[in-house]
Amino acid sequence: MTVPESRRQPLMGEGKAVLLLASASAARARILREAGLVIDVEPARIDEAEVKRGLAAAGRNPDDAATTLAELKALKVSARYPGIHVIGGDQMLSCEGEWFDKPEDMAAARAQLLKLRGRRHLLHCAVCVARDDGILWHHVERASLHMREFSEAFLDAYLEAAGPEVRHSVGAYQLEGLGAQLFARVDGDHFAILGLPLLPLLDFLRGHGILTR
Questions:
Q1: Which phi and psi angles does 161 have, rounded to 5°?
Q2: H or E element in which residue 173 lies
Q3: Which of 3, 51, 155, 166: CA 20 to 30 A from 107?
Q4: Percent composition of the chain: helix, strand, coil (DSSP 3-state, to 5)
Q5: pLDDT tens digits for 124-140?
Q6: Are strands 39-41 and 85-95 parallel, antiparallel or unpaired?
């Protein structure tokens, strides 16, 4: 449940600073708001696919890719809002050296889940904070998830029940809901798996007077 505004405001610093989230991710906005942060959302429009192709061609790893994308988003928005702290985030999925993206449609989601079935994959989740065209801080968290050997009948029933919302997840699952039934084992930070390494971010914001210590 979202924390009421009256309970959120006292958690901010004396100036009740406005935080901007440079992401269109509803999951990231929800994580921040439910933790008591007062944020505005200003999605950064960048060509993520082109950036990923360039990073892959340069031999960069998924941690680097997630960090680079998070920073590009934050810097693009920060350039338009001087003096404001801007949060950028991104999440990459890798499995045995292959990078996966959000599926374009339900057929692609089904094919992706079949490819991940019975295998271990990694989520690389990056967050950063920018201000005045500079990156103040960044952090990347890695989680390990092992999908069970589910049947195709189960998969079809899952996709029908979960609906097109799965296309908004890089893994084509939502672990906080029905997607939990896809897994045999999950190791890693809960918030990072959902899309944002929240606790390190809160620690940074407290250390810089943006949240009350």
A1: -75, -40
A2: none
A3: 51
A4: 45, 25, 30
A5: 999 999 999 899 999 99
A6: unpaired
Taking the mean position of all CA atoms in its chain, how far away is CA 210?
21
Place of tokens 């992706």: 112
Q: Is 52 exposed, middle or buried (0-12, 13-18, 19+ CB in 10 A)?
A: buried
CATH second-level architecture of 5-207?
Alpha-Beta Complex (3.90)
Instruction: Give one DSSP letter per residue of 17-56, joined into a string.
Output: --EEE----HHHHHHHHHTT--EEE------HHHHHHHHH
Q: What pLDDT is recorded for position 175?
A: 87
Q: Which residues are catalytic?
A: 90
- Identify residue 130 by its one-letter amino acid code: A
Contact by Cβ (8 Å): 120, 146: yes
CA gap 60, 47 in Å, rounded = 17
Displacement of CA 118 from its chain's centroid (Å):
24
Low-confidence residues of the chain: pLDDT under 70? 1-17
Give the CA dihedral 30, 36, 37, 41, nearest 10 degrees: 20
The predicted pLDDT at position 34 comes to: 95
Strand-pair partners of 56: none
> pTM of this prediction?
0.88
Cα distance between residue 127 and residue 138, in whole Å: 6
